[in-house]
């Protein structure tokens, strides 16, 4: 734990990790701009993050790209965001409105809409009693939506991921990733290039009302 904490214990490295929460692979140059540090300094920070196994490096030709090492790292970061906000209860939430509404958390949906979706699923019994798998009701719901779970993965099927802006859980795990993938394939959400923000299309708003009784997006 101390090694992981040490790898993260720098504002520039935290900025890089938060940028990588959009699920994309970034170049060292892009991450140096995000952290507002020189390329040589960024390289040293990235080396520490790789050594701490928080990020991985991909090489394509002459270019090197960095991304979060796993969904578990993304969940850790999201949880830490929530914990850091709870340590200052008097502080008002300053998250931009567009990011509070809907954004990505690594490979699944986060924000106000995602929290509402998860609450609906819980109320309607989409999960087993442990909350780590889909119930028959949930499996039927996913089938109707057209969301397909990945096979042969060690990742939990479903889990509650603490939403740092709403301070309530949204859906993570295999099911969370499958849900976002379905939303994108159906054209229900559009990613904003270069940001974690996503926008719901007209078709997406109709789908939210139909499947999750959400009408105010």
Automatic annotation (TrEMBL):
CDD domains: HTH_ARSR
InterPro entries per the UniProt record, alphabetical: ArsR-like_HTH, HTH_ArsR_DNA-bd_dom, HTH_Metal-responsive_Reg, WH-like_DNA-bd_sf, WH_DNA-bd_sf
Top-level taxon: Bacteria
HTH arsR-type domain segment(s): 1-88
Entry-linked Gene3D superfamilies: Winged helix-like DNA-binding domain superfamily/Winged helix DNA-binding domain (1.10.10.10)
SMART domains noted in UniProt: HTH_ARSR
Protein name: Winged helix-turn-helix transcriptional regulator
Protein's organism: Kluyvera sichuanensis
């Amino acid at each position: 734990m101390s090694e992981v904490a040490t790898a993260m214990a720098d504002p520039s490295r935290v900025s890089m990790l938060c940028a990588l929460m959009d699920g994309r692979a970034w170049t060292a140059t892009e991450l140096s701009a995000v952290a507002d540090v020189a390329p040589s300094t960024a390289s040293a920070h990235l080396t520490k993050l790789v050594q701490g196994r928080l990020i991985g490096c991909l090489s394509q030709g002459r270019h090197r790209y960095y991304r979060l090492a796993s969904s578990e790292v993304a969940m850790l970061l999201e949880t830490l965001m929530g914990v850091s906000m709870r340590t200052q209860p008097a502080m008002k939430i300053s998250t931009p409105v567009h990011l509070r509404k809907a954004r990505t958390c690594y490979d699944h949906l986060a924000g106000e809409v995602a929290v509402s979706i998860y609450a609906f699923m819980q109320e309607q019994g989409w999960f087993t009693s442990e909350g780590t798998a889909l119930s028959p009701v949930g499996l039927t719901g996913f089938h109707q939506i057209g969301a397909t779970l990945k096979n042969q993965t060690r990742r939990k099927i479903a889990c509650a991921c603490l939403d740092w802006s709403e301070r309530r859980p949204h859906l993570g795990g295999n099911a969370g990733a499958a849900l976002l993938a379905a939303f994108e394939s159906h054209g229900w959400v559009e990613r904003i290039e270069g940001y974690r923000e996503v926008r719901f299309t007209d078709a997406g708003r109709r789908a939210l009302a139909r499947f999750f009784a959400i009408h105010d997006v």
